[in-house]
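User: Can you predict the 3D structure of Peroxin-7? Sequence below.
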Amino acid sequence: MAAIRILTPYKGSAVRFSRFDAFRLLVSTRDRYASSLGLHVLQVFPTPSGGNIINEVATFDSDEGVNDCCWSESHHSLAVSGLTDGTVKLWDTSLPPASQPVSIFREHCDQVRSVDWNPAVNYFLSASNDAKIKLWIPGRDNSYYTFEGHTDKVNAVAWNAIQPHVFASVSNDRTVGLWDVRDNRSLTRISDYHPFGIVSCNWNKHSEFLVATASGRSIDVWDIRTTLVPLVDFISHDRFVSRICFSPHWANMLLSCSLDNTVRTWDIQAQALIARYDLHHDAVYGIDMSVHIEDLIASTGRDKLVHIWRVSP
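Assistant: Sure. Here are the predicted structure tokens for Peroxin-7:
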């Protein structure tokens, strides 16, 4: 697939590929001055000339900004979002906008920073500035469980792809939390020595023991069996990192984006830069890699652009 982009009316905060449709994406926006707050479903279509274009096929408006979003891993049309007003909203993208959202959850008392759907079981997590993490089951009116232990804003949560009962959380308290939902307990706490809060985390898709975190301009990779020091620690960007993501296809490849307007890919074993992409002209907040198409990346940011391209043409 050749690189393609779409100029949107909104500033993106997150982008996610669908597990069920290789050419469908979900984009969220949180900009208070945007003309269309909420969720946007984009579809890649082939052109008669053999290329591709991106069109927006559905828009689901919200009164408040959306910090994060993700597709369901269990149902092709469901998606969840975390909003700046502290609500968690569940959407069915197969229904018309007038029927949306299908559920609103109001238990958090501050902004919801992150959401993540479990890869094996039909439930999802939300993480908030109120220092709490909640587990939700679609169809229930209230959360199934609340995980407490962080002492400051929880910026991100991520399920372990190989051990789906385990998840990681990262916080402004400069710790990484590891949790087990089988008995709703904290497995361990990793203390990060960087001076800034930790903003993003993601598990390696090929090892149940490796989790990456981002704090300031630094990226760390931890082996959860030995957590005194990270296995990998390097300065990755010229300004703060906003999100990281492991490749679903390559065990050593990590993707990052930053307030320095760039997206970069890394070989974590060599601690070396693979490629730098200067596609955006403002801060990049959302990145994802397709599980269907090897090396296919999507990004979105404050410049209102959504890019889709291949690492290796």
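The CA atoms of residues 22 and 292 lie 6 Å apart. The chain has one domain: 4-310.
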